[in-house]
């Protein structure tokens, strides 16, 4: 690209149907630093809309910097469809073909005047156009391809005395890029036909021929040399460009069928990329032909979502100046089209600060994504009087008095009776009313609370480990009820097994004929309806037709949810041990499901990349949370039930608002797929674990990472906070349970406005200080963790002999 003077302004030439061309007044550029060149703004059909073909090489500047581009717009007569821009004289046969396609489209649309104006401008003869085929030939796919082609007509202003930039004709006329590299057939203008994904052709069309394939290595090497020689403060930030540029340049070479150049480019530079992109590069290396790109999910992810880089203004200006001086159109076009550069004012970030936040499939989260308000406080607890039971002993009566006041909790403590200023309104989402049985359970819970052990660095919990021996069926999911009386396991043989872990056995309800004989008014009716003949420690639930990957008990212990590879979520009754409903919405395996803390609602996530919110009495989902670029591996409700967190294989965690389905937080920083999530009991913090073995801590209110716990050497499968939030327990495939000091991790948080605005997070390297204990199993990966109401840790996993 020619070096362009900063003070150049945008001039639009407006072609009227009659009369000479008139110059519109100069306008200041309106780019924000990440704009894409060559976008087409279509007016509504039937109105005389203008179509501006902006220069692909225009620097979408920062704020008020003028955009050095020439926008040519043709005005259609009233009542006609929008007219494409005039293209200058075609320099190459390829450009000429594109121009002919545009003229053919105009003729088809009966836009005679615009066609005449364009032909006069391009100095083309009537016969040349007539020779491309009859007007009626190119409808259907041809018309679509032609209109897709129009959106790619770009014009770039050459510099005064500079040599032609790559991609322009010999005469300095801007190159007009089409969808296909070869000359298009008359009926179908370079269309890419893919049956199941109609938008694939549009997606791939961005990789049209832009420059000399033999120069790609030189362009990339030149930028690499420039970045490595820049000042230390800018080098770390600009190094973020290497990976997305490498991917897009490689894909561009493959798409344009320069297979040898692509292979050489990949082999030369793939070793320079950060280690946490190795899995993505492995997938990329298998895309060696244009045909491989169609329908490839990874490819589409890269194309449809702009890779987000967060760079300081100084570093961005340095990059822009370099690319303009070197006239490096190729790289600048990729920056404009495929990257979203989130520019902030202030000091550039250090390598450590950047490394903490990057690593996801689509780069970092935009700062705007984490700005919306989140009500992370807890809902007010209903007032329940705690009666003293007759069988309570005298000694326990002394404990009974403080029960009404509730014992003191620390700052991280759990539910409070006062209204939390950060809590959502009580009626923000409809929640089920408390039944009498729920109230009784809450009273039991409060009594247990008085006997709860206060945990801390000097008082660590005991851990009770449930090992599934001889689990040849393959244990794939575990859950424990809130009162720790039942444990459920999901297995690869498609069964769900429920055990009682108390002396009380599992019993089913009697048959209908026997129930009619029972006195409905008696006090112990709930006891009488149970059939003693069915009592057993284990019940097996059959119904799924694939491995069961998720299990969740309802808060009232009457129901159990299970999700499976068969694409369904099933709701089981724990009174009759039968399946009540099969929820069908996911098209692929469902990796996880979880009940809301208030019951009634539940969430599921799966291989189809979306999470769904359901209510037990609706067979269709209430909300669909779409936005992840890969499988949703784990789901978790916020303690106030107004938000849902999802962890994905795209290496991001998202927080969704149940009320409107919006994504209100995007957390990036993990270097592998996320497999576990848990909220702190006070709702302020979120802990996440992934295949990279790290546990990351997040402040939900500010949308910031506030801690990193290193120690595990394999996937972190389970995370749980203690009941009062003082300790975080993590279980991993490395056969260990680790306990961390949550109070210390969250104290003295640096969450000032500057940090929030720029993402300059400084994570303390204090994992070893926060680690309170490591507990090894013999050879059992830890699949699930649970804190009982008295703060005993229950852990579960299947023994896997080495």
TrEMBL record:
<dbReference type="InterPro" id="IPR019775">
    <property type="entry name" value="WD40_repeat_CS"/>
</dbReference>
<dbReference type="GO" id="GO:0016251">
    <property type="term" value="F:RNA polymerase II general transcription initiation factor activity"/>
</dbReference>
<feature type="region of interest" description="Disordered">
    <location>
        <begin position="386"/>
        <end position="440"/>
    </location>
</feature>
<dbReference type="InterPro" id="IPR006594">
    <property type="entry name" value="LisH"/>
</dbReference>
<dbReference type="InterPro" id="IPR037264">
    <property type="entry name" value="TFIID_NTD2_sf"/>
</dbReference>
<feature type="repeat" description="WD">
    <location>
        <begin position="583"/>
        <end position="614"/>
    </location>
</feature>
<feature type="repeat" description="WD">
    <location>
        <begin position="709"/>
        <end position="741"/>
    </location>
</feature>
<feature type="compositionally biased region" description="Low complexity">
    <location>
        <begin position="51"/>
        <end position="70"/>
    </location>
</feature>
<dbReference type="InterPro" id="IPR020472">
    <property type="entry name" value="WD40_PAC1"/>
</dbReference>
<dbReference type="InterPro" id="IPR036322">
    <property type="entry name" value="WD40_repeat_dom_sf"/>
</dbReference>
<feature type="repeat" description="WD">
    <location>
        <begin position="468"/>
        <end position="509"/>
    </location>
</feature>
<dbReference type="GO" id="GO:0006367">
    <property type="term" value="P:transcription initiation at RNA polymerase II promoter"/>
</dbReference>
<feature type="repeat" description="WD">
    <location>
        <begin position="667"/>
        <end position="700"/>
    </location>
</feature>
<comment type="function">
    <text>The TFIID basal transcription factor complex plays a major role in the initiation of RNA polymerase II (Pol II)-dependent transcription. TFIID recognizes and binds promoters with or without a TATA box via its subunit TBP, a TATA-box-binding protein, and promotes assembly of the pre-initiation complex (PIC). The TFIID complex consists of TBP and TBP-associated factors (TAFs), including TAF1, TAF2, TAF3, TAF4, TAF5, TAF6, TAF7, TAF8, TAF9, TAF10, TAF11, TAF12 and TAF13. The TFIID complex structure can be divided into 3 modules TFIID-A, TFIID-B, and TFIID-C.</text>
</comment>
<feature type="domain" description="TFIID subunit TAF5 NTD2">
    <location>
        <begin position="211"/>
        <end position="339"/>
    </location>
</feature>
<feature type="compositionally biased region" description="Acidic residues">
    <location>
        <begin position="386"/>
        <end position="397"/>
    </location>
</feature>
<feature type="compositionally biased region" description="Gly residues">
    <location>
        <begin position="30"/>
        <end position="50"/>
    </location>
</feature>
<feature type="region of interest" description="Disordered">
    <location>
        <begin position="1"/>
        <end position="70"/>
    </location>
</feature>
<keyword id="KW-0539">Nucleus</keyword>
<feature type="region of interest" description="Disordered">
    <location>
        <begin position="155"/>
        <end position="192"/>
    </location>
</feature>
<comment type="subunit">
    <text>Homodimer. Component of the TFIID basal transcription factor complex, composed of TATA-box-binding protein TBP, and a number of TBP-associated factors (TAFs), including TAF1, TAF2, TAF3, TAF4, TAF5, TAF6, TAF7, TAF8, TAF9, TAF10, TAF11, TAF12 and TAF13. The TFIID complex structure can be divided into 3 modules TFIID-A, TFIID-B, and TFIID-C. TAF5 forms the TFIID-A module together with TAF3 and TBP, and in TFIID-B with TAF8. Component of the TFTC-HAT complex, at least composed of TAF5L, TAF6L, TADA3L, SUPT3H/SPT3, TAF2, TAF4, TAF5, GCN5L2/GCN5, TAF10 and TRRAP.</text>
</comment>
<keyword id="KW-0677">Repeat</keyword>
<keyword id="KW-0804">Transcription</keyword>
<keyword id="KW-0805">Transcription regulation</keyword>
<keyword id="KW-0853">WD repeat</keyword>
<comment type="similarity">
    <text>Belongs to the WD repeat TAF5 family.</text>
</comment>
<dbReference type="InterPro" id="IPR007582">
    <property type="entry name" value="TFIID_NTD2"/>
</dbReference>
<dbReference type="Pfam" id="PF00400">
    <property type="entry name" value="WD40"/>
</dbReference>
<dbReference type="Pfam" id="PF04494">
    <property type="entry name" value="TFIID_NTD2"/>
</dbReference>
<feature type="repeat" description="WD">
    <location>
        <begin position="625"/>
        <end position="666"/>
    </location>
</feature>
<dbReference type="InterPro" id="IPR001680">
    <property type="entry name" value="WD40_rpt"/>
</dbReference>
<feature type="repeat" description="WD">
    <location>
        <begin position="541"/>
        <end position="576"/>
    </location>
</feature>
<dbReference type="InterPro" id="IPR015943">
    <property type="entry name" value="WD40/YVTN_repeat-like_dom_sf"/>
</dbReference>
<protein>
    <recommendedName>
        <fullName>Transcription initiation factor TFIID subunit 5</fullName>
    </recommendedName>
</protein>
<dbReference type="GO" id="GO:0005669">
    <property type="term" value="C:transcription factor TFIID complex"/>
</dbReference>
<feature type="compositionally biased region" description="Basic and acidic residues">
    <location>
        <begin position="409"/>
        <end position="420"/>
    </location>
</feature>
<feature type="compositionally biased region" description="Low complexity">
    <location>
        <begin position="167"/>
        <end position="178"/>
    </location>
</feature>
